Recover the amino acids of this structure.
């Protein structure tokens, strides 16, 4: 059973992290869901979810939302004693969706001041998968240089840029396209969007 950390930071687009978590749970993965403080603020503003209180209270709210049990874990942003903060208990992958430019900058500088940053640093140093879903436009030179530095360190950069060749009909179709692009490098099968050529009878 793969163990995937999903982190939601303070960029717009918290729906990506929520939808990804749904699909990972459906695929039978263990999921640890993390939020930055700004990520919780954006989640409240964009999705109307009030996941506040103690870590234990938040965990209960999160598990109820996803209809999940122990397969879904949650730790506070400052809990550097969580297992995922150690290389000896490194997850298979960390996905930051959405990834704010502030988070990307701190990761590019090698900082690990909270659990999200530390978990990302752990998977990089252990040679495991770090996937970042930046949701910012336009990028300035500093953003691009930070993302390039992370890519050179081994991170996969998957911008929240949905395609339109599959003729999306709803907002959910656009979100699912991006989530599917995250699932692909994790080698998790999905049917969130048709592959190029499928509608014409291709693979």
């Amino acid at each position: 059973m793969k163990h995937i950390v999903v982190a939601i930071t303070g960029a717009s687009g918290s729906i990506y992290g929520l939808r990804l978590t749904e699909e990972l749970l459906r695929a039978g993965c263990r999921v640890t869901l993390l939020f930055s403080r700004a990520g919780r603020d954006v989640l409240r503003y964009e999705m109307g979810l009030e996941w506040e209180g103690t870590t234990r209270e938040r965990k209960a709210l999160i598990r109820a939302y996803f209809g999940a049990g122990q397969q879904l874990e949650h730790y506070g942003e400052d809990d550097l004693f969580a297992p995922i903060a150690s290389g000896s208990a490194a997850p298979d992958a960390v996905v930051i969706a959405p990834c704010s430019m502030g988070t990307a900058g701190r990761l590019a500088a090698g900082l690990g001041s909270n659990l999200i940053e530390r978990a990302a640093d752990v998977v990089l140093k252990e040679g495991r998968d770090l996937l970042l879903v930046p949701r910012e436009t336009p990028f300035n030179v500093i953003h691009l240089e930070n993302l390039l530095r992370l890519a050179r360190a081994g991170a996969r950069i998957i911008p929240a840029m949905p395609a339109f060749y599959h003729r999306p009909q709803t907002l959910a179709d656009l979100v699912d396209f991006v989530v599917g692009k995250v699932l692909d490098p994790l080698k998790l099968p999905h049917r969130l969007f048709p592959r190029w050529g499928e509608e014409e009878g291709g693979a």
Notes: Helices lie at 14-26, 37-47, 55-66, 101-108, 115-125, 141-152, 171-183. The chain has a mean pLDDT of 95. Residues 14-26 form the longest helix (13 residues). The radius of gyration is 16 Å.
